[in-house]
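Prompt: Have a read of the protein record below and flag anything odd:
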Amino acid sequence: MKQNTITRKLMLRILIIGGLALLGIGLVFPSVFYHVMKPHFYKQISSVVSSGALRQSYIWNKNSQLHEIATSARVSEAVQEYYAENGEKEDAKEAILEYLPVIHSGLNAQEEQNEENGYIVFSNYLLLFTDQGDLFYSPDAQWTADIFRESDWYRTFDRSQEIRGHIPVIGNEETGQFFCVVESFWAGGIHCFAVNMVMAEEVLMQLSEFEDFGLRDYLIYCNGEVLYSSQDESVIDLDACPQYLFQGKQYETLMWEDADETVFAVLCTYVDEDFRLVVRVSKEQILEPYFGAFRYFQIMLWGVTLLLLVAFGISLKSTLHRLKNLEKSMNGVRNGTCEEIAEEDGENDEISSLTNTFHMMLDKLRKDQAREEQMQYMLLVSAIDPHYIYNTLNTVTALAELGRCQEVVEVNNALIGTLKDRLKMKNYKTFDTVQAERETLEQYMVIQRYLCWAKIQFSFQVSEEDQNLLIPKNIIQPLVENAIKHGILCRDDDEIKEGKIDVTVEGCGEQIRITVQDNGAGMEEETVQRFFSREPGPVPEGDVSHIGVNNVRMRLKYLYRGNYEMTVDSRKNEGTVIRIVLPTRSEISGAYLF
């Protein structure tokens, strides 16, 4: 079975190209999808970042309390009263504490079970400390005040500096971490600092939507300092970010693209406080929710492609079948066993053109082959034994020297009668009547009686109605010649007997039966097999034995294409009987007649 057919090559190429195309689509599609959907993705991310900034601004809106404390004359007077030499400290302290409440925002105790449902829940702890070392706070803020007092920032803070909107981070995981906003002011000669403390946990809770959206790398940034990083090793490079990213107005989300990463920044508070969210998102993070869809898409694409390939193969079936038939016919011509395929009149494509062209070439080949066979046949018919002519002419010369003129004329006329049809090629006929063949054969026997030393009795039996039957020309004479040369003249009997050759021709329905019988030397079975049973073919150069028999068989093969019979019955020193059964001339294809 062939493995290298156009069908397999075509399907293999389609599969390879389709597979490479699918792999390419699978690799390229996420990037294409990302670039097409990028405006939508950026809009969503900007919306989420803006929502987080809005929540943050709601928390830090309480910073207005610090400004109120810093500008309140009542607070300034109370502080001065507290540090006056004869001041009423308790009254002054109570006046200060009125401005330092603990503010709980968002939910009451009965609603705490809903705090996971999008509510903004936080507490503001207001403190005030002075350069004199005192710390003022509400009794409810005792625990946060203790954390603030123990913080490294409070212990090391330079109380002589003027600050506004500074946001240190104090505490630790055990005590809890706090974001603090500090604003300084003067009460007489006392340097005071108002503080707004918010638990980091409550601040970060408002950014939980970031995690839900896959924004896992973000910073809380203020005045050049990172207050909080969502990851221990954030890959956000603030130094590489352009300056415009940190110059936006409140709630204005700005964006910067760097390769496959994008950085978003938004201001949550007033510009003075500079409390910002900085978020980094990569292409992979944006596409991560769609990876499952990509897989389903690829599976669907493979399925659709497979269906298309099957449909394509089915649609090509008839075309490939036509090519297969054409190939089969061409191989048949090459192997000598050509099988006919119909010409394609309904189609008008390359295969139809090839098929019709092949038919034209095949017809031309057959005509050329038939013409060649005709020429070979003509050569076979016209083949003449030169020794036969040489011996005949020598006989004529000998008879002339003896003065036997009448016999010279007789032999010469017989030779002319024998050769005239063979030498006149323009008047050549494939078939002739039995009567004409009989006359030619009698002329031949006249010559043989002079050439042969043995006496030969010859008879030709044919009925009156069968004399006009058509048989191949010169089909009997080579058999008679073979009977004389290899039969009668080769007898090795002690007693010389008279040679005898009997020819019989009779018509039997649609058949013509020819019999040539002699009483010559006969043949052994091996000789019969060699010259009468094996496939006839060209005689090797130098081998002239039984050349006439081979000539007859070659011509019968050409004319009848195997539709004839030739049998031989021979016995040593008893003679040989050759029987030929031919179809009548009407049964022969016209292609072989000329």
Remarks:
- The CA atoms of residues 167 and 528 lie 126 Å apart.
- Residues 40-109+118-288 form one domain.
- The first strand starts at residue 102 and ends at 105.
- The chain has 17 helices and 19 strands.
